[in-house]
Amino acid sequence: MVKKRRCARRKNRLNKTPNSPLHHFTYKNDRLFAEDVDLTALADAIGTPFYVYSEATFRRHFRVFADAFAGSDALVAYSVKANSNIAIVKTLASEGAGADVVSAGELQRALHAGIGPKKIVFSGVGKTRDELSFALDAGIYQFNVESEPELVALGAIAQEKNLSAPIALRINPDVAAGGHANISTGKSEDKFGVPWARARALYAKARAMQGIDIKGVDVHIGSQIDDLDPFETAFKKVAGLIADLRADGCAIERLDLGGGLGIPYGEGATPPHPDAYAQMIKRVTSPLGVQLIFEPGRMIAGNAGILVSRVIYVKAGEERRFLIIDAGMNDLMRPALYDAYHDIWPVQKNDNADTETYDIVGPVCESTDRFAKTRRLQKMQSGDLIAIMSTGAYGASQTSQYNTRPLIPEVLVNGDQYAVIRKRPTFDEIIEKENLPDWLV
Ligand code: LLP
Question: Which residues, in sequence order, are bridge partners of residue 4?
Fold first, then answer.
């Protein structure tokens, strides 16, 4: 049975040994559980599809990352875009996380979840003047400025308010990295950051601006990076830049190294452990004597969530057998956007069952509405439940209501308790945001 109660805080439950599991989604007597919650019972209670998160996994991943930098002056600013539910942000806040935000909305979420402004950094190429103004008033720790016009706008707004904006310039180091072309950000042709060749000149300009207080340098080269080499190349370049900037008379006291560390998705490369990442970073940055800032997203959230969905039909096509499930690309965009691989597990496992090869697809009217191609699974039937694994990051936060499919619930599990932390809207709630003009009424 599933018990529904408000989440109670429960510390010291985590296994912190290096061999502790990647996540807390496990089979008990062949039924898949999230921690101690039976997912079959949960699906019956709230309906499918839904995201379910393991609080213990979130906490564990945050601790593994933070512990890797224990003893260093480091701020771990969770990248809210990965999973922005306030219950998740609050869970991480209680572990001491700061936040990396990219919009006024995310900033409000972080503040609402109890993250102090002095632990918040604001990234993004297109911060509006209103957003800059709001963040200045909130007193955030750092603006990661991505262009000259943004620098000028921020300086002017700060000066008007008689404030000084703490900034780092995000430098584009022209290093290729990332699990897919669509999530690489550090090449010179990418829209992100200030071009490498302009960095010193822009810092010189910033120094002369009244509303600007230079604090550091920022770099973020991409996401789902499963190799330390591109990180090291970029970070060494940036360390060299810090030396140059100091020679130019800039007091650089912080270095924001962004996020990007990959996670195992069950296939292919195994990304480096945070300890190896930390060792490399300490080696490259310790001579600089700077405070380090990190913006991990996927590494914290990715394996802490799964998407549970029910098979609607099993359809025999001419060449393929389709498993048509009730989750669609609007609920999980990653396979459609980046050809992303996710493990798919049956919720009721039967190791003796025959297997079958399926294309696992959703109901949305798009050919890209497909979660897996020619995937070997135990034989499934209409009504069976499946779990799309490792969808805690960039799953729920990228959802849409395309095809007027309501945003799916998010559920947080803590031991044998669960709480619905975002509910499924009704059709009335969806259309009440729309209006008929007078001439149509
Ligand atoms: N900092 C900045 C400035 C970023 O742009 C990002 C991610 C992060 C930190 C966090 O990166 P992470 O540690 O999660 O790799 N939707 C894509 C990923 C987009 C990443 C965008 N920026 C996906 O599902 O793979």
Answer: 418
SS3 annotation, 368-382: CCEEEEEEEEECCCC
In the chain, the domains with their CATH numbers are 4-54+302-430 (2.40.37.10), 124-294 (3.20.20.10)
Q: What angle do CA 432, 435, 440 make, to 5 degrees?
A: 135
Secondary structure class of 305 (helix, strand, coil): strand
pLDDT per 10-residue tile (average), the chain, 441 residues: 41 36 92 98 98 98 97 97 98 98 98 98 97 98 97 98 98 82 69 91 97 98 95 97 97 98 85 96 97 98 98 92 98 97 97 97 97 97 98 98 97 98 97 96 89
- Answer yes or no: 250 catalytic: no
Rounded Cα distance, 4 and 419, in Å = 6
Give me 404's structure tokens.
Answer: 């007027």
Q: String of b and e for 330-367 (b: at least 16 CB within 10 Å)? A: bbbbbbbebebbbbbbbbbeeeeeeeeebbbbbbbeee
pTM of the model: 0.94
Q: How far is the CA of 164 from the centre of ligand 1 (A)?
A: 28
User: For a pocket test of ligand 1, which of 58, 106, 298, 333 has the largest count of ligand atoms closer than 8 A to its C-beta?
Assistant: 298
Report whether the peptide linkage leading into residue 49 is cis, meaning its omega lies within 30 degrees of zero. Answer: yes
pLDDT for the residue numbered 19 = 42
